Structure formats: C-alpha cells, structure tokens
Amino acid sequence: MKKFLFLMLIVIPFWGIAQNTSLSGKVTDTRNNPLPGVTVMVKGTQNGTVTNNEGSFMLTNVPANGTIVFSFVGMKSQEIPVQGRTSLDVILAEESIGLDEVVAIGYGTVKKSDLTGAVSVVKSDDMKKSNAGTIGTQLQGLATGVNVRSTGRAGSDAFIEIRGVGTLSNRTPLWIIDGMISTPGAEFNPADVESIQILKDASTAAIYGSRAANGVIIVTTKSGKEGPMKVSLNVKESWEWSPRYPLMGAEDYKFYNDLAYEEGIKDGVWTSSKQDHWNNDTDWQDEVLQTALVQDYNLSLSGGSKEAKYLIGAGYHNNKGVVYGNSFDRFSFRINSEGKRGRLKFGENMFFTYTDTDPLQTNPYNDFLRMMPTIPVYDNNNLGGYGYGSEQNARTFGTNPIAREDLEYQNIIQHRFNGTFWAELELFKGLTYKLNAGVDYFWYERNWFRGVGNWTLNQEYRDSESQKQMVHTYNRLVENTLNFSRDFGKHHIDAFGGITYQTFISESLYGARLKFPKVGDDYLTVLDAGQANQTNSNNIAENALISYLGRANYSYDNKYLFSATLRRDGTSRLSTKNRWQNFPSVSGAWRISNESFFGVNWIDDLKIRGNWGILGIADIGNWAYLGTINQTIVTVFGASQALQSGATQVRIVNSDLRWETKETYNIGFDAAFLDQRLGVSMEYYNATSKDVLTGMPIALATGNEGGAPVANAASLKNTGIEGTFTWRDAVNDFKYSVTANFTTLKNEVLELGYGKDVYYTGTTKSMVGQPLSMFYMLKTDDLFRTQAEIDNYVTSNGTPITINGKRPKLGDVRYIDTDDNGQITQNDRQIVGNPWPGMQMSLLFNASWKNFDASMMWNGQFGNDVYNVAYWQGRYFADNSNYLEFEAGEEPYQVNPNSSFPRIIYNDTRNTQTSDRYLESGSYLRMKNFQIGYTFPAETLKKTGIEALRLYISGNNLITLTQYKGLDPDFINTDVWNRGTDSFAFPNTRSFMAGLDITF
Amino acid sequence: MKNIKYTSILLLLILLGYSCNQDLLDIDNPNEATTESFWKTQDDAIAGVNACYSQLYKEGTWMRWLSFRYDLTSDEGWSSSPWNELANWVKFQYANYNFYEGNNVHMEHFYRGIFRCNQVLKYVPEIEFTTNTARKESALAEAKFLRALWYFQVVLLWEKGSLVLEPVEAGYTPVQATDVQIYAQIEKDLKEAAAALPESWDAANKGRATMGAAKALLAKVYMQQNKYDLAKTELQWLISKEGTIYGLVDNWVDNFTHLNENNIESVFEIQFNDANKGGTGNNASMATGFQRTQFYAPGGIGWGDGKARQWLVDEYKKEKRVDGKNDIRLYHSILYEQYLEDFPDGDPMYYYIDTRTAWGPRGWRGSCFIRKYNTSYFRQREDYFAPNNYRVIRYADVLLNYAECIIKTGGTPAEAVQYVNKVRERVKLSKLEDSPFKDAMNSPEAFMKRLQMERTLELCFEGWRWADLKRWGLLDTQAGIDELKSRDADFNNFVIGKHKRLPIPQIEIDNSVGGLTQNPGY
C-alpha cells in the first residue's frame, strides 16, 4: 500500500506539469438562461467546481485529453471531451419526460418509449411522501386508473382496484415482488421499494394471464449500486388523527330525545314515559379517539462492484393507532444481492418481517352513534365494571367500545419470510436461461381472550374464554424461462418463453377453552388454565397453478413496434374439465415522430398504440366447485342428552365453474411537445369481463348455508378514457412540474348469473344494460308542510296513501307511491342513484427552488352517489342512540317547520325508511398530501462526512372539498352488490409528518 | 454452434419434464368428504338424519326467533324491545320485508332444514342397510316428519312458498305453491312417517320423532284446515296410549325444565343441552342450547325483548284452585309485580335479582315477564345455552285438541269436557263443570270459547297461539280482531286479509322473477 502511494506521488505531478490547462465557460439552458449551481467535473477525478450565478465556471488542472461532465438535477448530463480547448460553453437540456426509462413488464423489461400497452410507473420518491405504513396506501393517486382506498386501521393494507370493477371476486391485483408472486400486505416495508410498475391492460398483463384480470403490480426493491458503501438513514415521525362526527353533547341529546319521546307519546306509538336521563356527559369520541404517533425508521447499507452488488436494509414501523385498542408494530429486514461471473449471473432478494397487530374488536364509528352521552364509561354496578346504560335511564343496545376493547383482547403476531433466488445463464449471444425460485412463508399466530363482563345492556352471560390459532402458510414458485434478444440491422427481436409452477399450502390449528381462573386481578390465559369446553379445529387449504408462457416483441427502426403473448394456465381450483384456459394478446405501436415525413418540429415525440388481449382469473375458494359433506355437525339425543354426530351437505356449489375472463382493447397515444416540456398520454379502454366469479346469493328456498355459492355471476363491460398531462418547466432557479391524471369509467352489465336479466339485493338492483348495483329504494319528495298537501296525498284514483298503515301528519316524509296502490311498500322502490364515479382524477405538483423542494398531491372522484348509513343512524330517533348535531336551519320539523328534516318520533319508523333521503353525492377533491423539504448543499456537508441530507415536513388528507356528510367520501365497501353503501366505514386518518433522509 | 444445439435440447428436455406433471393440479380436499363419496353406508344415512334434527339449533327456529312470531305476535305477548324493527315485527308494522330477524331468518332456516331432509330422502333409499333393515324405513320417516314440520311452519307464517322436495341446484328459481298444495305434501309426508316410525325409541334415541309425534302433528295440520274428523282419528291413537306411552306429569313445571325431560307428557320435544358453548354454525362445538330466555328475561338478566300481556294474569286469577290457592301455572308462566302476594311461597329471587326491590316506579313497574322456560331455578344469569328441552307438542295439547275435535265434529260439551278436565285437574283446578266457567257446558259454541281460554292458560308461550287464532278465525273477522285488541293493543294495527300472514321476504320475490308473488296487501 505504501509503495503504491509513493508511486502515485511521483507520477501525478509529472502528468500535471506535462498536460494540464485551465478551462472556463458558461452553462445555459435551452432558452439561453444561465444555469447556476451546475456541477462541472473532470471525469474520473475529484477535480470539479460549481457554476456561479451567471452560470460561469473556471476549472484548473484540466487534462487536455480529458472529459468534462456537466450535471444538474433535472437536466440531461453532458460529457464533453476537452480536446485541448480552454473555453467551453454548454447548453444543458431538460431531462425528457422519462422516455428512456426502462419499465418492467413481467419476465423482462422494455424501454418506456417502446411500450405498446398501458403501464404506469411509480417512483419511490413519490411514494415516500406518504406517511402511510403500507405499500398499497402509499400508492394512492400516483397512477392513472388505480384506485386505492385506505382501510384506516393500523395494521391493514389498502384496497386497490385497477380500472374499475374488472372482476367481482378477488379484486386485488396480482402483486409480483421481485419476481415472486405474493401480496405484500402490511408486513411489507414500503421503504424497500425502488419502483413500481402497474400493468393495466391485457397486452401488458397477459404474460401473467390467468391471474391478471385485476391488473398486475410489479414491485422492484432497491439494490446496491456500483461504488463505495452508502449508508442511508430515513426517519419519519408523524401524528395521525381521525375525523369526528359532529355528535350532540348531553344537553342537546336530552332535548331531542325528549322531543322524540313526547312526539311518540302524542302519536300513541309510545305508551310509557320519557327516559329518566342520567347526568353524565360522556364524549365517546374523546374517550376512544387519540392522536397516534407513527414512527418509521429505515436504515440501509448498499454498494458493490461491477461483479457484485448488495443492499442490506432494516426498518421499524410503529403505529399507536388513532382508535383505542388498535396498534401495529413492524420490524423488517432485507437482503438483496447479485453477482456475476462470465455468462452466469445470480442473485437473491429477500425479506423477513415480524409484525404485531392489536386489531379492533368493535367498530367504534358505529358505537359513537349508538352510545348516548348520558352513559358513563365505567359503572361498577355492571358485570365487568363498564357503563352501557340502563333500562330506565339510558336504554340502548349500543356497544361501549372501551369495554369491548378492554374485555376482549386480541393480538396477531406474524413472521414472514419472502424471497426469490435466481440464476441467469447466457447460453449464447442474445439467449439467456433463467431459473427463478420464490418462497413466501407466513407463520401466523392469533391470541384472543375474553374476560367476564359485558359491553352492552342486557347482554347474555359469557364465561371467560381463550382462543389460540396458528396458521402456517407456504407459497412456492418455480419458473424456468428462456429469453432471446437481438438486433439485426434495424430489426430488433425479443422472444421469451417459459414454464411456471406455483403451489400454496396453508394449515391452521386452533384451540379454545372456557372458564379461566384469575390470579390477583389478571386472568391466566394460557389454554391449559381453562377449565371447560376444550375445542379445537384444524384446516388445510391448498392449490396449485401450472402455466406455459411465451412472448415475442419485434421492432423496426424504432418506428414500428409489435408484441404478442400467449399463456396457457391450469388451476387446481376448477374441475378437471374446466381447468385449462388460453390467454393471448397482441399489441402494436407506431412512432410517427420517427418517420422522415414527420416535420412537426414542436412535437418531440409521438407514438400511437393499440392492443387486444384476454386475461383471466380463478382466485376462488380452493374447492369451490366441489360439493362437500360436513360431518362434524352434532345433535342431541337420549336420556343422557349426549351429543351425536350428523352429516349433511350444507353449502350448495356450482360444480361447473369456469374461468373468468376479461377481454380488453385499448387505443392510445403518447406524445411529448415543446422541447419535452409537455407530455400527454391518452387512452381509450374497453374491458369486457365474462363469467365473473363471485358469490351471488341464491334463493332462500334452496336451503343453502355458508355463504352465497361462487358462480359465474355476471358479465360486465367497463369503458373509459385515461389521460395523463405533464408540464415541466424551469424559471431560473424555480423548477416545477404539474401532472394531471384522470380516468373516466362507465360500467355496464352484459349478463347476470343463472341466466337472470335482473338481480336484487335489499337496496340495489343490477340489470342487463345498466351499471351494476344501482341504488334501488324509496323515492321521497320533501315533507308534508300543509294539511292540503296531506289531503292531496292520494293515488291517481283518489285512494288516500298510507305509510306504515297510517296517514301522514304534518312534518312527515312524503314517499312516492310508485305503484299507485295507496300504500308505501317495497314495491315502490325505484332506481334512485348510481354508486359509480364517472371520473376519478389526481393532480401532482412538484417544485424546487434552490435547495428547497415542495410537492402536493390531490385526488378526487366525481359523480357517484353514496348511501350514508352513519347519517341514517345519527338521525334515527325511533330508538335511543346519540344523534348528529343539527346545524342552524336543519332542525327537525317540530323545532323548525321550514327545515327539510321531518318530525322526529320515538318508536316510529315512518320517517326513517331506507330511501333516497340518505343518498348523497360522493364527489370529492382531496389534498392527499403535501410536502416541503430542504436539501443541505453539498459544500456545507463536505466537512461532516455526510453525502446527502434532507429534512422535510408533510401533511396527509388535511383538506377535503366535498358535500358528503359522512366521515369520509373515500371509503371502501368490498361488497360489489352494495358498492356505494358507506356503512360506518373506517375513515382515512389525517396526519402531519416530519422526516429526515440522510446518506453517508 | 454445437454447444448451442446441445444446450437447447437439454433445456427443452427440462421444460418438457415439467410439462408432463399436470396431475400436480389434482388436489383433493383433505378437510371434508365430497357429496360423491358420501351417502354409501347405513352410518352415513343415520348421520344424515341426525343432521336434519341439528337444524333445530338455529336462530330462525324455536331456539330463538320463532317464538316472536307465534307467541309475541299473538295476543299473549308483545315486544318492548329497544330494537325498533324487532318490536315492529310483532305488531304488524312490516316496513322492510327483508328484515332478517323478523322474516328472512325463518325462511332461510326452514328451507335449510328442508334441504337436509331432502338429501336424506333422495340418497338414503339407494343405501343398503346391512344390520337393521327396519332402521332404513324409520330413518326415511324421520326425515319426512321433519320436512313436514318445516313446511307446516312455512304455511303458518306465509301461507304459500316454494315446494322443494329434492336437493336443487344453486340456480333454482322459486316457484309458488299454494297453501293447499303445501298442506297436501305435509299430509303425505306425515302419513308415511306415522306408518314407519316406532311408537317409542330406546333410551339412547329419545328425542327422535315417533309415531305419536307424527300423528299429533298430522292432527294439527288437519285441524288447521278444518279437517277435524281426520284430526280426531289421529289423536284418538294417542289418547288410546294414555297410561302406556302418554300421560300428564304430576308436577306441571316439569314440562319446562331440564330436570324431567322426555317424560310421559312429551310428544315431540327439541333436545337442548349446554355441553357446547360455541356459535350456531355447523361444527363439533356448535351450540345446542335454548336461547329464548335470554331474550325474554328482564333487563339486567336478558334482553327483555318479549313480555306477556297483563290480561293473561287477570285471566288466571279469575279462578282459584280447589284448595283456594292461585293457579300454579300463573306462577310458572308469568313474572308480574304482585306474584309474591298471589304466591306467598314463591321464590323472591329471580336469577340474581331480588324481585322485592325490582318493581319500583322506574324499575319493572307494569311489566309482565315471560317466565315459562326460565332457568332461574338453577342459575344466576341467562346465556345462549339453556339446557331445557323445548316441548313442541305435549300430551296436554293433544288432550285439548281432541276436545276441540269432538266439538267441531258434532260432539257435545259433555263428551269433550273430560279431556279438558284432565288438564285442569292436573293443576288442582276443579272440573270445568264445577268451575266459575260452568256456563261453557251450555252449548258447543260456549264450550269452544272457553276451550280457547283453557288452551292459552295451559299452553301460553309454547308457540301455538298464532296457529290457534288462525284456526279459530279470530284473525278473519272484525269481532275477532276486536276481541284481540281488547287484550293486545298491537292488534290496532291489524288489517284483516293482510296481516294474518307475513310478507314473503322481498329478496325471494325479487329474485324469483315472477315465480313467487307477494302476499296480498303487501
């Protein structure tokens, strides 16, 4: 080592004396504005400087045969050989809008400019602005046509839908994590993500054929880069809170409760007296909701050489939960590495996580509306010591959420190991063989305990109970693929073929007992301590999938692009007869701007593309097609009243289930204008889902039990337009970009299961030719405000119309007697609303000024209706619960005869029937996120040894523009037959975050 | 180049090797037998029949909600539930025809029972019984009995419905059958059941349907259609077995506790026990307990959803026993404020509550709780696992029905009264002729009217009042409704021609695409 240094000392000065000169010049942008702050370096040395405010630079010791590198964030770097010059003026162009990016398309990559199908790319930089702890939640608003809805609960991942309801069954897209087919879930640390590609149409997703009907999300995790070891540390601290209902306090509650009782007594529907209210004033939301501290720490070490690269990362995420009794902890650890020697490459990506979740036992957003403010949280008169009202003073059957969370304890611990191991061998130039093996193992453990005590008035007695459940899940994948890629003059060919085999096995073991003794104040909860009713269960789930796949891409002179794929899948989840299905696709594109005749100089790039393909899905129960006999049923006979076993088929099945397929075509273009400053992508999509596999409730008379049997229940068509507009520009130091995404959606039912033309649930109707699950309920027309209006409330032949068998009174709701029979009944239901938003959109702003950067993201949806169950409940006076505060002018008829709110009556439901009164516009526009950051200048950091340091603050969901009166217009209802019903869905939390990214 | 060839061939071989293993997709369900592998042996058949009985442990049956339909909807009871819709469904206020606990749960659970019976009736005839060939016939008869029991409930509640007689496919669309058609099927099933069922079972099999149960049920079915002569014949057989198979227990309350089950008075009873404390699913730890009392017990013990009407208390107190005391049936049927005055030997404790302090003006004042089938005699609190068997049909009911048949087939009060007297004298009341109600002997009409009262005093809250009111025509005339209104204000909402049957669940109507029509008036 010493020798080497000595040698250097001798050689370098000579070199300098002999060859070096100085170099000066100016750097400007394409519009001749000087660019300050541009890094100017002699390539391969530490010799460099930065341009001054006029964009000028001066560099000494420049070798005459050297090369100078000009680089600046947001600009294309340039390398210019010195060739003996002493002055050099340089124009730096804005970095183009990602046209040279490489996009993962499943079993390969393609330049984004060569894409012939619809793919969205999401960068980790955009994702990490979110403080959400899960990958799904962080995706919200970052890609067109991708609808993400948070569950709001600590420890559960978001719900993702790509381009509307493609399918009704398992609507989550297929996730590929570094080549392993497995859903990331809440266990996955989103900080590990390098980029995400979302394959949205048939041509791109078809290579995943059978599983891709809901779209495919490819996650690529970070890997080491060539160079010395980098240490990167990210810290996020955020404060999260929940929105609240405007609930009444005790005083208002008592006033309106008494008013409703008085009305009931006056009307003769309540024959007893008013409640003898207690004098408490409990704010249940104060008791249950809390500002949660969410902490997220990530550390990674990465680096490598030409032959080997590595990244080791560790993360810790902790969410205390905005609701009492809900928390989530995650420890994660990752190792990614790869090596190369000659024709052989190999590598692995793996992570291990430990999560600890305390899930909720009750839905407090329902409880808030049920528990009256006059009920105390604790009450020593009650078994267990919690307040839940009393017959005479506070009569409700609401749940005390604190009691339930305290008496019922649940915790879920999960260990997960997920990894892919691959080896790639170049057989000859252009042909590569790849073996990819992936595993995803879960060890799940659930502990549940209930102590003696009640949370609801008059609840039945239950012994203390302990339950333990363990589930082991093994998901394995083996893929053998061949890849061929070669240029022949202006022709470029990519070909790919392979076989994959995936198995899934999950086994659950469960035990429970009753009657656990107490030691001091605490129960013994280990199962062995239980004194009665030992029970256990054991269950195995298993399935397998075999696929043959192939793809060919051809391009000529970068102008004509063509791609075709074919996949053949066989699944164990369908009968032998219906097991196999083919999934083809073709796509093509024409880059017009590369044609010699294309002379439009303000268009930098223009590509027209179109594609067609068929995708499928069969993610149904493992044996959903198989009728089974339940042989564990018991019944009691005999003098000794002994249990005897019985056996019967409980669940009816459709044994002839077929693959659900989705045929789509898309036509679109990608264009860049005005020196790449404006980018536009537009696309028309048309997707027809046939034989959609989902549970479809069947006639009660069949005697089916255990849930609606899976059926090929419907055929649907989704059509719409997707567009992305990006504008990117710089004015001196101020650089900014604006991106607008929008997706329109039109949904139409083509066919319904069992040959039906129409299908009803309690509140929705689906009809061929119409959107799915339209709201079907009573239609109303204001209130009766005069006696004349009541007198005129008659059928066409003059018969007086009755509601619940009674004539209405002043202040009652006027329901429309659709069938004109003189009675308001279920036959008067009409289609009164549409749960589907006509458009979803998002806006992204990014800006930077000197070392400051800022970003903001908005998203929204427009045109859908929501049935607001919380509003119905919060304005339900027929029984006892708390109420939503009336705003001035909307008090009930008794108080304010001019308002649109009807007479409130205890013990009478005439004014509370399921109707369009509870239907609201679900349109909203929300600022999902904003962030302001500061990056310390490199010079300042130089002495500290820190390479990069950035501080930032951000906020999530802080502004929502909507007329919706529920807690959150951005909610989930996973039941597609009741898609638009907001039944106390968990709201998205609001949060404020501060963070720190540091690299050594 | 040679290398390339060899490598390619090698690779192809590897890939082909994979492609051969398509049987990797043949994965058997390790958890359960399939419908194809089952229904082969005698044991399978008996297990299938057992599963039919197991459907009795579901909320839509007598275990929980059915009493709301029959006892609370009738003039015997009412609901003060804070659950509005639940209360509305026992006072003829049906707004949402899909209200699960009031309507759909019954149809769902009855037809699940029917599905189980249909499986037995379809598959068991093909099974060869090796050890006991007679058992095959009785097994089929048990399934027929239960299927008839379910269809009888369908007719009592909705008066029409789908008549499904074998397992159907998932895509089945309901087709309407009238009450006449359904009754015809019930009669057929019960006649066949009665012919093949044993008169009684050995100790280990007590609780299974017997010949007497089939006949008593068939009699009820006939009576409901005013076929009193046919009913009388069936009942005659049971009467003839008095002293051998049937009789009245001395201690009246033994009919409602778990202390003397399947006794001589039992004709058909649901076997409840508290061994399991699970849910009402279908597994080895499923609940097999009686849940009704949790719903009827006073607040603080139970949900307090169902209560007795005051007139019943008054009616019991119109007559003293021969020893001058009050009718013990009142004590065991209803918990009311003055019960300790009327029954000084009564227990002041009801579960863990001292009733002497519970009747304050802001307490239980004015309430009449349903006491029948309570479990306070052996425990402090209610739950969903009461062990008391529920007596669907008991011999006292048979006796009273027989008396009714005598009157309705032209018999005289003098002929009929002996059967009523057996029931009265068991609880130490005088013979009817010697009672304050001796005018009932004056005419068949007067006797019938008194018999209506005798039935409710003996059988209140045992699930038959609604059928009785229908049979007696009280729901068809204004006079009948007026009589009921005087006892139960809920009948103010009653519309003649409409409310004697429930609306059919809307979801079933909607999705039958015209196959099933809604009941009139709804």
Features:
heterodimer; A: 1000 residues; mainly beta; Immunoglobulin-like; Ferric Hydroxamate Uptake Protein, Chain A, domain 1; 22-stranded antiparallel beta barrel; five-stranded mixed beta sheet; 11 helices; 8% helix; disordered N terminus; B: 522 residues; mainly alpha; Serine Threonine Protein Phosphatase 5, Tetratricopeptide repeat; two-stranded antiparallel ribbon; two-stranded antiparallel sheet; 11 strands
| Beta-strand proportion of chain A | over 45%
The biggest sheet of chain A, with number of strands, parallel, antiparallel or mixed sense and barrel status, is:
22 strands, antiparallel, barrel
Sheet with most strands: strand arrangement of chain B: 2-6
CATH class of the domain at 102-221 in chain A: Mainly Beta
Oligomeric status? heterodimer
Question: Could you describe the 3D structure shown?
Answer:
The complex is a heterodimer of chains A (1000) and B (522). Chain A starts with a helix and ends with a strand. Chain A has a 22-stranded antiparallel β-barrel. In chain A, strands 10-15-16-13-14 form a 5-stranded mixed β-sheet. In chain A, strands 3-2-5-6 form a 4-stranded antiparallel β-sheet, with no helix packed on it. Among the domains of chain A are: 74 residues, Immunoglobulin-like; 120 residues, TonB-dependent receptor, plug domain (Ferric Hydroxamate Uptake Protein, Chain A, domain 1), CATH 2.170.130.10; 29 residues, no CATH class. Helix content of chain A is 8%, strand content 48%. Chain A is mainly beta. Chain B has 522 residues and is mostly helical. Among the domains of chain B are: 165 residues, Serine Threonine Protein Phosphatase 5, Tetratricopeptide repeat (Alpha Horseshoe); 83 residues, no CATH class. Chain B starts with a helix and ends in a 12-residue tail after the last helix. The model of chain B has no long low-confidence stretch (mean pLDDT 94). In chain B, strand 8 and strand 9 form a beta hairpin. Helix content of chain B is 43%, strand content 6%. Classes of the chains: A mainly beta (1000), B mainly alpha (522). Strand 32 of chain A pairs antiparallel with strand 1 of chain B, so a sheet runs across the interface.
